[in-house]
Structures are given as structure tokens and as C-alpha cells.
Amino acid sequence: MRFARTLVFIALFFGFLGTAAPAGAQQKTPPQKGTQNYEEWLKREVRHELVLLPWLSVFDNLEYTVNGYQVILKGQVVRPSTKSDAEAAVKKIEGVESVDNEIEVLPVSTMDDQTRMAEYHAIYSQPMLERYSQGNIQSIHIVVKNGHVTLEGTVANDSDKNVAGIQANSVPNVFSVTNNLRVEGSAK
Q1: CA dist 87 to 72, 75, 188, Å?
Q2: How many other CB atoms are found less than 10 A from the CB of residue 63?
Q3: Does residue 180 contact residue 151 with C-beta atoms inside 8 Å?
Q4: Does 36-105 carry CATH code 3.40.50?
Q5: What are the tens digits of pLDDT across the range 42-64?
Q6: In the chain, where the domains are located
């Protein structure tokens, strides 16, 4: 009898422990809808969900805007699944009422795939730019469409932006290079 009460006590004790929140854990609730804090929270949540996409790569460029409770997704991706995964991830965020998915799926092209790899090597093997390849999310994105290259993302200074553009232009068989890299802290 005493053994049975001990088992019940242990089960109740561990049962309560399992339902309790860990020390320091906070409930992730959004601020009041309609406030500026809510819109800032929603922007952070959208960004968070997009960077966690499993197939997002340096050859994809995702952008978004938040307009009230609507999220507009833009950019270019290599895989169709990345487009649909982005929409699904954003739709599940609390408070999002609609998602306008304007993400372009880039055409399948062996030449563009070869250009992507050549551009990656030209940019990220440059000692001055190696630091941008660190981590899971590279900050210089290389978008290639029909032989035309666009650089997207953020760099620390104008020198890095210029070097990335020069390196991108050095790759053979590229029709054009558009350098849309933004410099941290500059207006745009």
C-alpha cells in the first residue's frame, strides 16, 4: 500500500513537472493588434520564419512587407518548394490574415546553375568577402536569371559592395550584373 502511494506521488510530481514551463521561459504572445509594437513584432516574426526555411540558400532572395495584417512576399527562389514553404510558414504566424505570394521561381537552366557556382566562388573566395559566407545565412545573395546576375543583401561598407560587384563582373558568360547590395546603416 505504501509502495502504491509512493508511485502515485512520483507520477503526480513528474506529471506536474512535465506541464510546468522551464525557468526563464516566456510565453511568446504578440502585442495588442493594431499597435505599432504589433507591426514591429510581426515583421520580426516573418523574418524569423523565412530564415528558418529548410531549402533557403545563397541563391535565393526573399523580401517581404507587412501591411497591417497582410504580408506581401517578394523575391526570387531556385526551388518551387521554397516559394510554397515561405507562404505556409508566414500564414501560420498568429495574426496574419492574408499572404500575397509574389515570389518568382527562377527558370531551370544548367547554364544559370553553372553561373551561380562560378559567382559564388568568385565572390566568397575573395579574402575581403569571406566573412560574409560565415553562418547559415550568407549576407550576399546571388540571383541568376537567364545569364543576368543580381546581388542582394547587406554588407558592412562601400568597399565590400564594390569588391563584390567587381568579382561578380569577372565571371565569364554573364550578360549583366546588378549590384543591389545595401551598406549597413545607410538609408534605403
Answers
A1: 9, 12, 25
A2: 13
A3: yes
A4: no
A5: 999 999 999 989 889 999 999 99
A6: 36-105, 110-183
pTM of the model: 0.78
Reading the block at residue 146, the C-alpha cell is 537567364
Which CATH number fits the domain 110-183, given the four candidates 3.50.50.60, 3.40.50.300, 3.30.420.40, 3.30.1340.30? 3.30.1340.30
How many CB atoms lie under 10 A from the CB of residue 48?
11
Cβ proximity of 71 and 96 under 8 Å: yes
The yes-or-no verdict on residue 88 having pLDDT over 70 is: yes
**Can you tell me the distance from the alpha carbon of 46 to that of 53, in angstroms, rounded to the nearest whole number?**
11
Helix intervals (H) in the chain: 2-19, 36-51, 80-91, 110-124, 158-169
CB 144 within 8 A of CB 119: yes
